[in-house]
Every structure is written in structure tokens, then in C-alpha cells.
Design a protein that fits this description.
It is built from 10 helices and 7 strands. The protein is α/β, with parallel strands linked by helices. A hairpin with a 2-residue loop joins strand 3 and strand 4. Helix 1 packs across helix 8 and helix 5 packs antiparallel against helix 6. It starts with a strand and ends with a helix. The mean pLDDT is 91.
């Protein structure tokens, strides 16, 4: 059973994963890199479509007990039996805007990822797929990398305290629904 770190782009998955993997001697399996290497992708109109069924089979063949599986596609390519714990990294959408601009995301890609973070899509899908007892949310917004790693370590030590993450209420309180959602 593997440890999984997932979340929307820009929340710190890869930065944190490098440190966690070294600290706990895990081998990183980057879902995006695996998809690219195993040619399970199809590019169309500036987006990348992943064949999740083929990717699921590829990961199943290479994942071990000491795998740290990283990527936003985790809830869509892993099974409950493959997973020991899932850490969902979350970040305030107002802070993600600058991250996405720095990465030069298209407006469409930025909006899709911000909306997903605000609605908690990856957290919801992870809980639905792996069960509430295996999913742990961490708000990375104002936390240092060492503090995030320490919170992940607390998952191993069974003394983890969930972070309360409710970006939708925050956006509603700021009267910014139209800023993020086109309706």
C-alpha cells in the first residue's frame, strides 16, 4: 500500500514530495511523468488527455509499499486497496492566482484549476474513492515546507489533525463568485 500526495496544480505536491520521499525512504512515482513516459496521453487543442485505464494498469505494475505516488490524477488512477493514506494539499485560491500566472496558464486552465480548488473536487473525489479514514487535508497556504512535512509525518504517527478548508465560503464572503465562476 502506497502513500499518495495529491491536490490541484500549484499547491506544493512535488516540492513536499521530494522531502517526504527522502525522509521516509520512499520512491516517488510521479503520475504525470509516468503518463508521459508510457505514452498514455493524447494532446488536443492545448490540453492533454490521459487514458486513465491504461495509466491505472501501468501504475499497478510499478507501485510498491514504499511508493510515494504524486499527482492530481491519483483519485482517478488508483484503487482503495493500493493506498495506505492520501494527503490532499490545498491552497487558498487567491494565492493560487499568482502561481498560475507565473506558470503562464491560459485563462481557461487557470479558471478550471481555481474552480476545482474552491469546490474541493480532488478532496471530494479522494474521500469518495479511498474513504474518509484514509484522506487527510492540509492547507498549505501559510505553512512552510518543513511544517507541511511535519503534518504529513503526523499521518504516519496517527496523530494528524485535519485542516479546515472551505474556500467556497471564503469566496462567497468576499462576494467573488463571479470572479471565479462564469455563470
Amino acid at each position: 500500500m502506497s502513500l499518495v500526495i495529491t491536490g490541484n496544480p500549484g499547491v506544493g505536491k512535488h516540492t513536499v514530495s521530494e522531502i517526504v520521499a527522502k525522509k521516509f525512504t520512499y520512491k516517488i512515482l510521479d503520475i504525470n511523468k509516468i503518463a508521459l513516459k508510457s505514452l498514455n496521453i493524447k494532446k488536443s487543442a492545448g490540453t492533454v488527455d490521459v487514458n486513465t485505464k491504461k495509466l491505472r494498469n501501468t501504475i499497478k505494475k510499478i507501485a510498491t509499499k514504499k511508493s510515494l505516488i504524486v499527482g492530481h490524477l491519483a483519485p482517478y488512477v488508483l484503487t482503495k486497496s493500493q493506498v495506505k493514506a492520501v494527503v490532499v494539499l490545498r491552497k487558498n485560491p487567491y494565492n493560487l492566482i499568482s502561481v498560475y500566472k507565473k506558470r503562464k496558464y491560459s485563462h481557461k486552465k487557470m479558471v478550471e484549476n481555481l474552480d476545482s480548488e474552491i469546490l474541493g473536487v480532488i478532496a471530494y473525489d479522494s474521500i469518495k474513492k479511498f474513504g474518509k479514514s484514509k484522506v487527510f487535508q492540509i492547507d498549505t497556504t501559510k505553512k512552510s515546507i518543513p511544517k507541511i512535512v511535519k503534518k504529513i509525518q503526523s499521518v504516519f504517527e496517527n496523530n494528524f489533525e485535519q485542516d479546515e478548508v472551505d474556500w467556497l465560503t471564503l469566496v462567497m464572503q468576499k462576494n467573488d463568485l463571479k470572479k471565479f465562476f462564469s455563470y
